[in-house]
Amino acid sequence: MLFEGYGRQLWNGTLETIQLALLSLLLAFVIGLVGAAAKLSQNRWLSFPAAIYTTLIRGVPDLVLMLLLFYSFQDWLNRLTDALNQQQIDIDPFVAGVCVLGFIYGAYFTETFRGGVLAVPKGQLEAAAAFGLTNWQVFHRVLFPQMMRFALPGISNNWQVILKATALVSIIGLHEVVRAAQDAITGTSSKGAYHAFFFLAVAGLIYLILTTFSNLAFMALERHYSIGIRRSEL
Amino acid sequence: MTELIQQYWQQYLFGTLGHPTGLVVTLWLTAASVGLGFVLAVPLSVARASTNRWLSVPVSFYTYIIRGTPLYVQLLLLYSGVYTLDSVRATPFLNAFFRDAFNCTILAFTLNTGAYTTEIFAGAIKATPHGEIEAARAYGMSNFTLYRCIVLPSALRRALPAYSNEVILMLHATTLAATATVPDLLKVARNASSEYYLPFVAYGIAAALYLCISSTLIWFFRKAERKWLAYLR
Most buried of A16, A72, B189, B205, CB within 10 angstroms? Predict the structure, then answer.
């Protein structure tokens, strides 16, 4: 047998990794849009907290934040349930993983989107407003499509980082692909030690396939958002 | 909380002379891997930017593999995977090297940051204005002199903003050393957290210290940019 009977687990782990990465991306994307809007806002009560959020989150390692948030919330939840004489609630590692990754990478997306918005020529937004477009129409027809073109390299970068950061979630107990490989190593340790190398290489290969495919997808997206733009030729 | 701080402050910062822990180990890991990564990246980036395919393709294969897989997997592979290979155990030098968690960690970090740095430097080298190279050739410079005097000084300067990001990401990545039993800042925080069961305080102290190092690095790089990129302002 190629995977010593652990093929199924590795496959499930891969699916878990993909789901985790996509949901975290979605959450980070939304937080990023809201954060960029807040950070660009004239209102200090919005821009200041957003600036604190991006500075703090981007200054602290993701693994530290992950452990900090995961264990602290579990701790607070335990104290709360103790105080109310309720049964202990265990936070689901998958939900925790999505929330924490989304929250952390939302800060990176905030900066990416802020840069994208600033790169859109102001005159176009003024022209759109002068034509009587509502705020939503200006956002959705003028600002967003162009901002996406400028932000796309950053988004692609952030996505690759999120995808690779999912490997860290195995540390807080999620059964994604790295954990599946580690389980396979423990399960086959009696049959010969070289399996450790093999299964970890397989996990690496799975990540390599995922990043390669997402690169291709982002190249297609870049073509889509660059329609009508002439590349300067050297 | 005060008990935790009293008990652990020394471990958070520097540990003992014979057994350093915490901040000192984190700084040492960062400095060693960034320094070795730099030494690795300069020749590799020249090869990566070369028009000779026999030089550029192997290097881009290396950066592709490293940048396409998580550092955590690379670390696990080097730390717990390689040592299980019989051929490694049979060679005395490799056996001694891979048995030490610290060596494996530094090796994994260096290979990782080396790949990212190679791409950053290669991008900057490729963006060297064509006229500069033509002028240098017209002066009769050899290839080595061309790179030493013209291409590398200007490319490394222009790479500075992207490079500073990579250094900070590397600082953040050193937290993975804790999973390989290296007693860095995060490992101390984990120990403190499990002893006192105060995760917020224990990890919060580590987070604050990491924030301080990040800010110092950002400040330092801003100064460096002001000095070395003055002509671009």
Answer: B189
Contact between B203 and A71 (Cβ < 8 Å):
yes
Q: Is B173 on the interface with A (CB under 8 A)?
A: yes
What does the alpha-carbon distance between residue B50 and residue B140 come to, in Å, rounded to a whole number? 20
Q: Which residue of B has its CA nearest to A211?
A: B68
Domains of chain A: total: 1
What's the domain range around A185?
A: 7-225
Q: Write out the two tokens for A127.
A: 């022209």
The CATH topology of domain B2-232 is MetI-like fold (1.10.3720)
What ipTM was reported for this prediction? Answer: 0.88
Interface check B112 vs A, CB under 8 A = no
Find where tokens 């103790």 sit: A82
> Could you report the per-residue pLDDT of A4-48, keeping only the tens digit for each?
778 888 898 899 999 999 999 999 999 999 999 999 988 999 999
For B184, the 3-state DSSP assignment is strand
Average confidence (pLDDT) per 10 residues, chain B, 233 residues: 81 84 92 96 94 92 94 91 82 86 93 95 91 92 92 91 92 92 90 88 93 94 90 73
Optimal mutation site among A63, A174, A178, A194, interface B, most CBs of chain B within 10 A: A63
Answer yes or no: are the C-beta atoms of B44 and B114 closer than 8 Å: yes
Interval A145-167: pLDDT, tens: 888 888 888 899 899 999 999 99
The phi and psi torsions of B127 (rounded to 5 degrees) equal: -85, 5
**CB B70 to CB A207 under 8 A?**
yes
